[in-house]
Amino acid sequence: MxxxxxxxSVRSVxxxxxxxxxxxxxxxxxxDPSTGAILxxxxxxTTYVQSAVGVDKGFTYTRSGxxxxxxxxxxxxxxxxxxxxxxxxxxxxxxxxxxxxxxKSGDEVVxxxxxxxxxxxxxxxxxxxxxxRSKFVDTSSIESLRGAVSRKTRLVLIETPANPTLKLTDIxxxxxxxxxxxxxxxxxNTFLTPVLxxxxxxxxxxxxxxxxxxxxxxxxTVGGAVITRDAELRERLRFVQNxxxxxxxxxxxxxxxxxIKTLPLRLERHSRNALTVARILEDDSRIAKVxxxxxxxxxxxxxxxxxxxxxxxxxxxxxxxxxRAGISxxxxxxLCALAESLGAVETLITHPASMTHATIPPDERERIGISxxxxxxxxxxxxxxxxxxxLDQALDAKGA
Length: 400
Ligand SMILES: Cc1ncc(COP(=O)(O)O)c(C=O)c1O
Description:
Aspartate Aminotransferase, domain 1; Aspartate Aminotransferase, domain 2; 39% helix; 5-stranded mixed sheet; alpha/beta; 15 helices; globular; 7-stranded mixed sheet; binds pyridoxal-5'-phosphate
């Protein structure tokens, strides 16, 4: 068994033949050759002793490479059907490295109009002043995307489902438009992960992850990853990772590796719980609107069925009574935690307008559907009925 798994990791599997549940546990991993330890050890070291000048065992300095981080990179890459990932200290570091690798002054990146607020902030406040132009367009309309790309477009970045409204973009159609324009398509696949959305099979060139979320899944770390099937692009990403110093730390990599082993199992339960909660909210007379791609009422339900293996743990909804009612609900939950982030075992409730998307100007937020009353719910792994009971009492409470 260990020999075949070792072979698997060394072979760089582009099209995994093993089931994703098996790959999550074994992909790119093998028992520690020196001790037989079944889990990859935490190589908590800065440097590596060289036996002679220029003779090393593949690692020289942990910013440039670390065996525990490399194990995470192989594991994630195999799970996604790409080359080994390039890991980063955070999801934002992963996005920054992607932009710095592909874009220079005068270039353009076309981005979904609904994306994580931090991505908007990075593009507008850090990269625009360096001469990198970003165009935010409604990529759920392929016509709008086609109208937005130009000769200067080097990269199209879509987030689907998008944070926080869950708006979808057709990955295969977006890939076609990007490629026609001579650009690459990157998908921020943080919400569904490789387990529920197979971006490379749909034509994407690059996937980006905040591993902070479902991938690690226990609210214990921050981390990020970029994956591609292009060896030359991967080398360029690794160059930027080392040059800028964005590397993931070995302990965080180890915790993330442990989380990935249960990722398929967790996502099955997240999806089931979220669908249960979404259905109950939809039938509740106190709720104005529920957005969940697994609901037949979701505006892009057909695309969701085509593009997703399942629909994940994120729901967005509005309470009747607008922002005041929504804020009252969020102030009144007892089991659900009012907190930023998503994708972990605990159910988290978030107010995007004041938390994750606060840096987007209010009129723009309103235009793209992030109303002041929008509530984002990351349904955890508790019993769905307990989450529903908590929301029920919070909807009745008169929170401040
Ligand atoms: C879709 C998406 N991408 C990227 C990020 C940034 O990741 P991190 O917080 O790990 O830097 C987030 C964070 O919420 C996110 O939701």
